Amino acid sequence: MPGLKTGVRVAAALTLGLAAVLAQGQSDLPGRSILKGAAVEYLFPEQVTVAAGKPTFIALHFRIAPGLHINSHTPKDEFLIPTVLSIPEGAGVRLLEASYPAGTEFTLPLDPKTKLSVYTGEFVIQARIAAEPGNHLVEAKLRFQACDKNQCLPPKTIPVAIDVIGK
């Protein structure tokens, strides 16, 4: 039986080696740029001062990586994942409402009859917040699904850190 164990080990090593070669080759294929870098980046503001207890709008700026898009807050199909901003309970700051930009119409080359509502480039969410008095380091979250013209990544949630000073 020692020959069988050696054969299994060789087969496993060959399989892993082939998988590594294929993975390396795929990283350079057109359309694979979706797998490199951050899909969405939170730009600013890092700190805001608001009147404590008074509802205030703040503008949150984001950038989507070139060649990618994310579904708008109101995608056209229920199976598509909307972009959503949230603030956790107990943060000292409440999200009263969020105003999202209108999506841009986007058509996939493989299905020109289907129109999607997406964000590309830079976009701004107007968040209406109310803060308790004091300094609150809020870790809001932005949930989205990034895609290119060929494929989509799994949904992702990124942190949106904002230092909110309620005066």
Summary, kept brief:
With 167 residues, this protein is mainly beta.
Description:
The protein is mainly beta and 167 residues long. It has 2 domains: 1-30; 37-166, Immunoglobulin-like, CATH 2.60.40. The chain has 1 helix and 12 strands. The chain has one helix at 2-26, and strands at 40-44, 47-50, 56-64, 69-71, 84-86, 93-99, 104-108, 111-119, 122-131, 134-144, 146-147, 156-166. The protein has a 4-stranded antiparallel beta sheet with strand order 1-3-9-6, with no helix packed on it. A 4-stranded mixed beta sheet has the order 2-12-10-5, with no helix packed on it. Strands 7-8-4-11 form a 4-stranded antiparallel beta sheet, with no helix packed on it. A hairpin with a 2-residue loop joins strand 7 and strand 8 (111-119).
